[in-house]
């Protein structure tokens, strides 16, 4: 039973009290404590996400015990209507990335193996992109309790990701802003991945919107493309890890040996607040929460990586 059906069956639900929220939080904390070991094997089989191939990223696993906190039922709607509203909201925003040298994004990332950590990226228009991740590792670079901060690291050029393929900022700005044309292009790219085209298309939308300096017109087109993808479900009102209210939609890809891919968004301005991957047990095996983003004139100077062949330490990753 999905949350739409549950809401219709249960009827109106009262606003959550302080006591009920605390009770829900305690249940969630208990779930967090016991989930890490169970999910570690799942993460090892996960295909790389943005920057994921270059560094180990981690966080304590969070179960999808979201219904432990009472659901505030909003006016009934569909996933399509929410995504179309996000498209309109996105299109009305100011293009802050226009003319910027860097697009600076602060986020929080979570994987099961190590612990949630802050992440900052400076996506360069013409210069190399820079990243800072604070990742829990041991002395040998394996996941553990000792926390070290990864120094700024170059990625060899300006790039964002679509369907695990790098494109430059110039190429991003050249993407069609007509939803039909953008959808056709993204589907062509998705067909090269070897996976289900609709699955990859849904994830491409998240990759295109979560950290990239996409213009308002491109964001509007992307959300319109998302609204055309089949089998997307509306989960309803949901709070992201930063405590911000949003609306959750997801595409269940478990039958394709993948995950439930969930987005929490703000339909009023088209901001993608958070993306999650959830396994068949309801465990969050990956999460990225957008904290802030905006233009920047400069980025930190790239330093040698913490480990690997180009590091000063010479330690293996």
Automatic annotation (TrEMBL):
User: Which InterPro entries is this protein grouped with?
Assistant: CU044_5270-like (IPR047789)
Which UniProt keyword terms apply here? Membrane, Transmembrane, Transmembrane helix
Q: What is this protein called?
A: CU044_5270 family protein
Span-the-membrane segments of this chain are 53-73
Q: Does the keyword Membrane apply?
A: yes
Organism, as annotated: Sanguibacter biliveldensis
Q: Where is this region: Disordered?
A: 294-317
């Amino acid at each position: 039973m999905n949350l739409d059906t549950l809401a219709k069956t249960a009827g109106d639900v009262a606003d959550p009290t302080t006591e009920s929220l605390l009770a829900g939080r305690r249940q969630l904390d208990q779930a967090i404590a016991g989930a890490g070991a169970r999910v570690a094997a799942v993460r090892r089989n996960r295909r790389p996400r943005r920057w994921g191939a270059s560094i180990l990223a981690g966080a304590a696993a969070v179960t999808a015990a979201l219904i432990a906190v009472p659901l505030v039922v909003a006016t009934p709607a569909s996933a399509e209507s929410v995504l179309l509203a996000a498209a309109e909201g996105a299109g009305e925003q100011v293009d802050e990335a226009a003319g910027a040298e860097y697009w600076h994004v602060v986020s929080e990332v979570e994987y099961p193996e190590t612990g949630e950590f802050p992440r900052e990226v400076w996506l360069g228009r013409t210069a190399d992109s820079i990243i800072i991740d604070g990742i829990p590792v041991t002395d040998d670079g394996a996941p553990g309790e000792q926390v070290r901060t990864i120094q700024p690291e170059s990625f060899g050029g300006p790039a964002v990701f679509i369907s695990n393929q790098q494109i430059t900022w110039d190429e991003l700005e050249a993407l069609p802003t007509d939803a039909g044309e953008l959808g056709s292009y993204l589907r062509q790219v998705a067909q090269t991945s070897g996976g289900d085209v609709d699955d990859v298309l849904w994830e491409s939308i998240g990759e295109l919107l979560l950290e990239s300096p996409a213009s308002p017109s491109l964001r509007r087109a992307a959300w319109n493309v998302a609204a055309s993808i089949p089998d997307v479900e509306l989960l309803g009102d949901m709070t992201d890890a930063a405590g911000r209210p949003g609306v959750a939609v997801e595409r269940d890809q478990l039958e394709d040996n993948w995950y439930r891919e969930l987005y929490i968004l703000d339909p009023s301005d088209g901001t993608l607040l958070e993306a999650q991957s959830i396994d068949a047990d309801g465990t969050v095996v990956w999460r990225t929460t957008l904290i802030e983003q905006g233009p920047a004139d400069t980025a930190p100077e790239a330093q040698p990586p913490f480990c690997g062949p180009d590091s000063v330490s010479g330690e293996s990753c």
